[in-house]
Design goal:
It contains one helix and seven strands. By secondary structure, it is α+β, with helices and mostly antiparallel strands.
Length: 120
């Protein structure tokens, strides 16, 4: 009898926690930026990471910077279409369109290419 009660309590708690997670409206985007010509074991350059809500005239913009290992994190974003842009000194900029839906937890990995220097 006690094992049935324990089972019912366990099932009820799973059902409640599942319904709490459904369509919470929260979203997150995490990522890693690699840099052409820089070994992963070396200290990584810093990159500016920007997530701008589309349409461009929207004022919703999330901005962060990569850490010393190249990781970035937007722990809570709104939903919808965004433009993800990543820039770092000495490297070509990166840009991509991203759609973030409810309960989205995405991972993004990018390698920034070194900017070609021209000799006059």
């Amino acid at each position: 009898m006690i094992s049935r009660i324990a089972l019912l309590i366990a099932l009820a708690s799973v059902a409640v926690s599942s319904s709490c997670l459904a369509q919470s409206g929260g979203a997150s985007l995490h990522g890693w930026v690699a840099f052409e010509g820089v070994a992963y074991v070396d200290k990584q350059p810093r990159a500016k990471v920007q997530l701008r809500h589309d349409p461009p005239e929207s004022s919703t913009v999330y901005i962060t910077e990569t850490d010393e290992h190249g990781f970035f994190n937007f722990s809570h974003t709104s939903l919808g279409r965004f433009n993800l842009s990543i820039t770092a000194e000495g490297f070509r900029p990166y840009s991509a369109d991203v759609y973030i839906s409810s309960d989205f937890a995405g991972n993004w990995a990018v390698e920034l290419r070194a900017r070609k220097t021209t000799v006059p």
